[in-house]
Amino acid sequence: MTAGFGLERLGLWSLAHKGLAAAGVLLLTVGLFVASLHLGFESDIREIFRSDARDYSVLEDVADEYPASEQDVLVVLSGQNLLQPDILEKLRTLHLELLFVDGVTEVLSIFSAREPPAAEGDPAPTVPADLSGVDMADLKARLLANPLVEGKLLSKDGDLALLVVSLDSSLNDIKPLSEAFGRIDALGDKVLGGTGIRMELTGLPVMRIEIIDALRRDQLTFKIAGFAFGALLTWMFFRRLRYVLIVGAPVIAAIVWQLGAMALISGSLNVLTAVVPTLVMVLSFADALHLLFAVRHNMAAGEETRAAIKKALVDVGPACVLTSLTTTLALLSLVLVPHPFIAGFGMAGAMGTVIAFLATIFIFPFVAWFILKGEAIGEGARAVDSWFARESVAVSERLARLVDRRSGLIAVVSVVLAVVCGLAYAQNGPHHIYKENLPKNNDAYRAIEAIDSKLAGSGTLYLFLRWKDDVDLTSEAARTVIANAHEFLAETPGVDSVWSLKSIADWYAAGSRPAEDLGAFLKQYQELFANRVISPADHSALVTGYFVNVDASKLKPKLDALEARLDSLRAAHPEVTIDVTGIDAVAARSSTEMISQLNRSLAAAIIVIILAIGLSMRSARASLVSILPNVMPIAVGGTFLWLSGIGLQFTSVVAFTISFGMAVDSTIHMLNRYRLETAVRGEGAAALHRTVVAVGPVLLVSTIVLVVGLGITVTSVMPTVRLYGEVSVIVLTTALIANLLFLPAILKLTTRKGG
Q1: What strands lie across the sheet with 198-202, from one edge to the other?
Q2: N or C: which end of the chain has fewer CB atoms below 10 A?
Q3: Which residues have C-beta within 8 Å of that of residue 299, sequence separation ≥ 6?
Q4: In terms of pTM, does the model score above 0.90?
Q5: 456-477, pLDDT tens digit by residue?
């Protein structure tokens, strides 16, 4: 059994049955291409934190019982002193006409504010129908004192107003949502044109569309730019278009197969799985390049085309199998994380790695034979025929000589660097802010920033109260519990405004109606006043706190303190279940837990893969010498996160896991080549020198393909995707240095007697 467990024989079968293999590949590729046309995009930010934990189920209960919390579009209006009669009339017109926009069910704004109820009649609007002669300073003061408006719908300086537009719950698909936003935008342009007022939309529905638009742009950019660069690099090295076709054929097939498989299995891409096709592309490129280098080397040694391909499959094929296995194991470690968002990515990535290997090992042999048959061999087939190729070999030669002369110093430097960077990695804390899922240069992000700077904040924290038995939520007993919960939330540091049934009761008490009539009043005006604070049918109440969006590491301690304080209220009212929830709360708790679990899965992946290397090569020494060159890149990446203040995000830890799986590939190819060289020359300096010179050029080229292919993601407008690219580039670049310099130095020190 070979180090590749015999799976490289798939390539030998393909080479022996070229016509049948080509026909099968063509049919499969066409079928999966058709399937890929139906691949959609998933954009629900909540999916990031979905789990079977009670925390998430409570969030879903809130969404079910208070659907406006999920379907609110926040219309941010900014301009100089909005509280002018002519401007107010424009804003009132916008409010009223929004109610007639198809798909809009409710609009809240300063025009929804009412004066405390008089003895008879409907509560009068705070902003009167006729603004002539109105004292605008007094009107502003009354608006800012209104519990509905305070900190939520109007800034203290009067330069920012917020309209909360609730969409029909049936608007879930992307097309109807986009059309609804288009109608809102068009109405804003029509009503506010010429006023100088800026209108921006944000909120969860808007964020969904922004994320999808960004994902679509990214997918097109990543695939076109990544493939183009890989093809260009191949041409630069070999200066022959036919070699670009040999490498490009399995790459294109692998991308199509992956997209088609994802369309059939999951039906959609999300923020994380959107990078899988790029991952598949670079992995396939790397394997194809390793095989092509081996074929060219064999032909230069005098082997005819078919024999050269066969020998490349036998010599390099096992290493390709093993590299695919280690990358697959690294990605499968993510399945251990009990969050479908991460586990789903792990499965998609593992499937992509397998597809990249199968496409390459199966397609490369017959494509190479069709294109290279009749090609010159011996001196006429020398691969070193371009400046780029010569420089790659020259760099490898210099590195090999450096290891020969300074192996001890290099080994010491590598150990010190790994320890120092490892300590820096350990200083990183968890980090997450949900708005970082948005591109920073778009209206939705700017609107969130405006809300955070001018109002109580874009962050929401819910206290979700549920009674175990049927109860009148307007009764004094129920209102007391709600009022106490309101006070607990208001006392939480950072929470600047709270809205609940207590807010309405306090407002009502300032009027002239009897206190005992509050229940009847709320039933009469349920839709106007109470549908966001109580749900009589579900025996529940919602207390909402608003705060400026902060990092999860800062929010979580406040949540823990609030939970501890609420224990006394829970003990006093065992008939009521009180949960602290909301997307911000769930994100703060889940991101910390998720990052910790990802770190554990990464550690498990490192241990399993290092052991797998030794097992496949039947050498404990292979496992031991693999540790430092593969742990160091992660430590260096962690140092970057610490020095930049970014901290550990789930995206960066996922990037560490993926990059580690790919970085190990270089180690495997080095060890595999060293094994082949020692079989001819015996262990020692000569075999090691030849290994670095032989493998160095292909590692340089394949790493550049990997770095650029994954590095293209730094051009994304999505901060999370961009961070993935930054971390991947750092880890893979460090891995190249570690495997061409540190690994040979360690091997030399452990085989000094043979040198």
Answers
A1: 104-108, 160-167, 72-78, 198-202
A2: N
A3: 305, 308, 372, 375, 376, 377, 378, 381
A4: no
A5: 888 889 999 999 888 888 888 8
